[in-house]
Amino acid sequence: MLPSDMVGNKKPYDRHKHGEGLNGFFGEVLGKTIDRESTTEEGKHCKKARENMIDFTTYTFPQYITDPFHDHVAEALTKVSYPPHHKDYDPTYQYLMLFAPPQHGKSELVSTRLPPFFLANNPDLPVGMVSYAATLAERNSRNARAVLQDPKFNQVFPNLKGQFDNWRVHEWHTHDVGTGEPAGGYALAVGVGGAITGHGFGLIVIDDPIESWAHAQSERIRETTWGWWLGTLKTRIWEGGKIILMMTRWHKDDLAGRILEEEGTIEEGGRWRVLSYPALSMRPTTPEQEEQGTEKIIPDLLERGLEEPLAPSRFSVEYLKDHQKTLSRLVWMAEYQQVPTDPEGTFFKVGRINIEEAVPFEVCDLLEGLPVNVKKGVRYWDLAATEQSAEARDPDYTSGTLMAEGPRRFWILDEVRGQLDPEQVFDLVKMTAKLDGKAVKIRIEQEPGAAGKSLIASYQKALAGYDVDGAPASGDKTVKAQGFATQVNIGNVAMLKGVWNKPMIAEMAGFPNIRHDDQVDSGAGAFNQIVSEESRWVDIKFLAV
């Protein structure tokens, strides 16, 4: 039974009358024409176009040149289009991710040809078309709508046409020629962050949810996109509905990366089928290489030989290799090979930071993965006091890094931060101190003058019984971070595994050419306190309070 909000006042498609499958809806109209057409080459092509996406694409767009890559993608899209009772319906194609390099012809298949093909085979299921901006989503919508208007589409699916009294760029509906009534299906185009309240979908096509490499490196944009996925888009899919996420992988923590971390792949027992196509085929990683931390390379889906191009009709191996020379390894591996890697960084070589789930007992104990009873630690605070608002959309963060020295390593045990007003900052410092315990020293970056001294005095009063002191703010940021960076770059810094790792590593990788460097400041401050002669540890006995 169809969801109530799907039917509305329209007469739903009667599956019992017309039957299921890719031809069920059109069988009554097409039965005679198929026999007549099958005697000509065009007729044979038209018949195949009703059955699968690649023939539908080349029939309605004869200039479209195909490689095995396009055939492979189209085969998956055909399976996505099968209604639930089709004999070849495969539930593992309900959630599909498709990663491929730019300009390889994937959008023509997924965003232009698939929506009308899907609507023809699922006439009562609305389609959502999503891109990073409404303008791109509407362009895709306009192109898909044009396919439905094409006479060649009508030759393939003569019983479905546009409902021209409800025919706009961002929303267009279909008309059942046989019944003379609306078919029930429609397409809606929307940008990431756009409003889709009141709509539900049988298929959502997401084409490039992030605009560019620069945007993919922005933690704020990634967070905003993730919030929209969780709070808006994901709630709009109907039970049994399908989602296609097509994008170029620009970052490990992009939308695809986060979804896979939460929901997993089919092979892992999760829900997503992932099709990943590098521009030049690569040698798969061995189990031994994976254990050593090498980025995982899966066997090539097209069974290409080493360094064969993905779509030779579009880009030769010579062109791609020349292009590779003009890009950094980070960009090439992510954007063209679909293997986003952790940036090495220039100031901080963050690939050399060890992420650990266990900590030596000399450093601290762990309670449910969190540090407790820290033996010799410093929590260093870099304070800011402007909360996010319409006027201050991206203010500085207050950042507090907890660091300790252990056997042969320095350990980053915790990081807290937020874009907060002064009262919230004060509360955060006090609350964190209570969680850390009195054995952890508290050092706060102190601005020059009386105001800086007064601020430190207020914290010392509020945290009586704790070792609280100011650390004068002076000197260039890169100079202050140099000692910390040196230890990172020779592999002497470890991080306790936690949700805060990724934002801190991303900031360190971009330092000093980034908008926010608060975590670098607090991390370097904690390190400098630990290694300074003035902060050498002595045994201190705390009185019970």
Features:
545 residues, Nucleotidyltransferase, domain 5, 2 domains, 8-stranded mixed sheet, 7-stranded mixed sheet, 17 strands
Give the end-to-end Cα distance, rounded to a whole number of Å.
Answer: 66 Å
What name does the CATH topology of the largest domain carry? Rossmann fold
Overall average pLDDT: 85
Q: What is the number of strand segments? A: 17
Determine the number of helices (DSSP H or I, runs of at least 4 residues). Answer: 20
- Describe the main β-sheet briefly: 8 strands, mixed
CATH level 4 superfamily of the largest domain: P-loop containing nucleotide triphosphate hydrolases
Q: Which architecture of the largest domain does the CATH hierarchy give at level 2?
A: 3-Layer(aba) Sandwich
CATH class of the largest domain: Alpha Beta
The proportion of residues in beta strands is 15-25%
Given helix and strand content, the structural type is alpha/beta
Helix content: 25-40%
Overview of the structural elements:
This protein has 545 residues and is α/β, with parallel strands linked by helices. The chain has two domains: 4-277, P-loop containing nucleotide triphosphate hydrolases (Rossmann fold); 350-535, Nucleotidyltransferase, domain 5, CATH 3.30.420. It has 20 helices and 17 strands. It has an eight-stranded mixed beta sheet, covered by helices on one side. Mean pLDDT is 85; it is low at 1-36, 389-393 and 533-545.
